[in-house]
Design a protein that fits this description.
Number of helices: 5
Radius of gyration: 18 Å
Shape: elongated
Strand content: 15-25%
Helix content: 40-55%
Largest sheet: 3 strands, mixed
Structural class: alpha+beta
Length: 142
């Protein structure tokens, strides 16, 4: 199973912000869409990611004035990205090892989606449950 399978189910709509966007506006986008991170782009290419954690760390360090700064001053960069052909287990492993919760999906240098650790875990659990049900059905039919 690959990231493309997740995007096929989830869709490729991605909320993102441009580099010059004020953090205050990025916070509004996160809240409006009930999401935890937004890819930061420059001319359509992903250059970083702004997460709730990034905002919290900046607020703690510099106070509320950070809300008027631009996202590129507080984002995590470079963004760790994947392509649609990456296996789900590889993406999960990468997220766990790097302690990140969101992966922008890039194809041909352009943003085509984003997956969260929740998306990947939910997909994996669904597959495991399907396999278990198939095994139960096989055993009962024997």
């Amino acid at each position: 199973m690959t990231i493309a399978a997740i995007l096929g189910r989830k869709g490729g709509t991605v909320v993102s912000v441009e580099c010059g966007t004020p953090i205050r506006q990025a916070v509004s986008r996160l809240a409006e869409n009930r999401i935890g991170a937004v890819p930061v782009t420059r001319d359509g290419e992903v250059v970083g990611i702004m997460s709730e954690r990034d905002i919290i760390y900046c607020l703690e360090k510099s106070g509320a004035g950070v809300l008027d700064m631009e996202v590129e001053q507080a984002m995590t960069a470079p963004a760790i990205t994947v392509t649609p052909d990456v296996p789900i287990l590889s993406a999960l492993s990468q997220m766990s090892a790097r302690r990140i919760r969101h992966l922008p999906v890039v194809e041909g240098g352009k943003l085509v989606g984003i997956v969260s650790i929740g998306d990947l875990v939910a997909y994996r659990i669904a597959r495991i449950e399907e396999e278990a049900e198939a095994m139960r059905a096989y055993i009962q039919s024997a």
